[in-house]
Amino acid sequence: MIRIALPASLFILAACAPAAETPPQGPGEQPAAYMALGTEPGWTLEITPSRLNYDGDYGETKIMVPNPGAKPSFNGERYVTDRLTVDITHSECSDGMSDRRYRDTVTVVADGKTVKGCGGKILPPTELAGTNWSFVSIGGTPVAGDRPTSLQFDGNRLSGSAGCNRFSGSYAVDGGTLKAGPLMATEMACPGMKLEQAFFKLMATPVSLTFADDGTLILTGSEGRTAVLRRAI
Fold it and tell me: What is the pTM of this model?
């Protein structure tokens, strides 16, 4: 199997920002919720500018407390309240249930019980080979949830469906650019094929690869057309 590595520049972690009293955010952005999660037992944590919301033990334990503000800690931040203590360390983390990777390692002490997990930005995969995706939108138009879609990368070939016909072809990555094809597709007729046709047009020329903080994959063509895909784990 040929494994095509993505350029290293896509995976360099951002430098650690100074501790702040709200979850990390970019210049000019509105404060956003910081999310963390763990398994065995399953738990989630949401940090908003005003509150810490913790669901533990697969939802049986719920703790909601005011956000006390982050204090600097070794390579990260710390939140301390009477019921919750949260330590965020900027160290790459795997959730243990998939190959999804996160920017941060997170430790939570909830009413004296310690759990560990991951949080923050979802990191891009180290390579496309072996990853599966589903379509969120094509050309800015949302893809209907009742139309199964997929895009799989297997070795040096890709395959999938944009809502109607199955397609497949070769692909290569060079400097953050994905070049596919020529793509071969079945010839079924389906309602609402405009999105599928828009995707085939997009992939007829090289597209740029970018990854959003939530892990979504964005394919952008030379004319600014995009396809947005969500990782299928």
Answer: 0.70
Q: What is the tens place of the pLDDT at every residue in 43-67?
A: 999 999 999 999 999 999 999 999 9
Residue with tokens 């020529």: 182
Q: What is the pLDDT of residues 169-208, one digit of tens each?
A: 999 999 899 999 899 999 998 887 899 999 999 999 999 9
Q: Do residues 92 and 168 share a domain?
A: no
DSSP string, 191-222: S-THHHHHHHHHTTS-EEEEE-TTS-EEEE-T
User: Do 104 and 141 reside in the same domain of the chain?
Assistant: no
Tokens of 193: 């094929």
- Residues whose CB falls within 8 Å of the CB of residue 91, separated by 6 or more in sequence, listed in order: 75, 76, 104, 105
Q: Which domain holds residue 56?
A: 16-22+31-122
Q: How many domains does the chain have?
A: 2
Last residue of a domain, one of 68, 87, 122: 122
